[in-house]
Design a protein that fits this description.
InterPro entries: ClpP/crotonase-like_dom_sf (IPR029045), Peptidase_S49 (IPR002142), Peptidase_S49_N_proteobac (IPR013703), S49_SppA_C (IPR047272). With about 350 residues, the chain is of the alpha/beta class. About 55% of the residues lie in helices and about 15% in strands. Strand 2, helix 4 and strand 3 form a beta-alpha-beta unit.
């Protein structure tokens, strides 16, 4: 029995050391690679053209082989006719009569909200060229994360709203916690029936190894200037006063979160939806968290009648090995959170 206990203690120590070393390596590698990966590029895709090409391919697949030549010939004539109309409009200074633009932004947020940097560049690019009648669609997917990161993401979306752009957020899978903080800045929110929304709450947890260190006669010293410079620690001995102050800070953050959501969506009963709970799309509609049940695909297809739909995506240069490792960790964490939320709802 003593052998098993000692072996178990050894495994805990070994795992802890490996975890700490791994964290330091990731931080070091991240810092050294940031300087090399600062540059990126905007990728622009005309979704109208992509969708029309899909339609063309499917129509041709349904037409007998002998009739395809005539269809392609007629289609080419129609495209030339439309192009001639557009050229005439430009020549006569009537470009403003053409369709306005709907810009599509994809945001898949991780715990550390590192995607905000790309979001900032995408939004800045849009604001430099937007015209009257243009709108924004954000396809949002996030379980939330750090408060300051998602607060900045929400502030970036607010930049577009302050410029008079109408913003629609589409949630196909999940917009929880910080993800919902971003979503509620929009003028209009639509979500799939089984998407997960809400979690207007704050959570924080840290491990504490103090007893393990004491049992192995390892002392930890920490000196601070300021009563609450540190409240809870990983290695030191936590106090009731520190715990109380830590909870107070959580409650302050929660209050800020509630006030923000209530300001953006004043018709919701903020006390009933700020319990930290999650809801599926249909229930979220009843509570006023969203405005419509639907998917981003349907919204885009409908919008093509009135808008030139353009997807804009800022892609940073990446170190493939390091980023694959980080992305893998983020995907595991996000999958775990989504699975946890689903199990809770069941």
């Amino acid at each position: 029995m003593n052998f098993l206990l000692n072996y178990g203690l050894f495994l805990i120590k070994f795992t802890t050391v490996i975890l700490i070393i791994s964290i330091f390596l990731l931080v070091f590698m991240s810092g050294s690679l940031k300087k090399k990966n600062q540059n990126g590029q905007l990728h622009i895709t005309n979704l109208n053209e992509d969708y029309q090409q899909i339609q063309t391919d499917l129509r041709l697949a349904k037409i007998p082989l002998q009739a395809r030549k005539n269809w392609l010939k007629n289609d080419k004539k129609e495209k030339k006719r439309k192009l001639k109309i557009e050229k005439t409009a430009i020549k006569n200074g009537e470009l403003k009569t053409l369709k306005p633009t709907m810009y599509v932004i994809d945001f898949k947020g991780s715990i550390d909200a590192k995607e905000v940097e790309s979001l900032r560049k995408e939004i800045s690019a849009i604001l430099s060229v937007n015209q009257d009648g243009d709108e924004i669609l954000i396809r949002l997917e996030s379980c939330g994360g750090v408060v300051n990161g998602y607060g900045l993401a929400a502030a970036q979306i607010q930049r577009m709203r302050d410029c008079g752009l109408r913003i629609t957020v589409a949630v196909d899978k999940v917009a929880a916690s910080g993800g919902y903080m971003m979503a509620c800045v929009a003028n209009y929110i639509l979500a799939a029936p089984f998407s997960i929304l809400g979690s207007v709450g704050v959570v924080a947890q840290i491990p504490n190894f103090n007893r393990l260190l004491k049992n192995n006669n390892i002392d930890i010293e920490m000196h601070t200037a300021g009563q609450y410079k540190r409240t809870l620690t990983i290695l030191g001995e936590n106090t009731e006063d520190g715990r109380k102050k830590f909870k107070e800070e959580l409650n302050k953050t929660h209050k800020l979160f509630k006030n923000f959501v209530h300001k953006m969506r004043p018709n919701v009963n903020i006390d009933s939806i700020s319990t930290g709970e999650y809801w599926y799309g249909n229930n979220a509609l009843d509570l006023g968290l969203i405005d419509e049940i639907g998917t981003s695909d349907d919204f885009i297809i409908k919008s093509m009648n009135n808008f030139n739909v353009i997807r804009i995506n800022y892609i940073k240069k990446r170190n493939k090995i390091f980023d694959c490792l980080v992305d893998g960790i983020n995907k595991l964490v996000n999958s775990f959170l989504i699975g946890l939320l689903t199990n809770i709802k069941k």
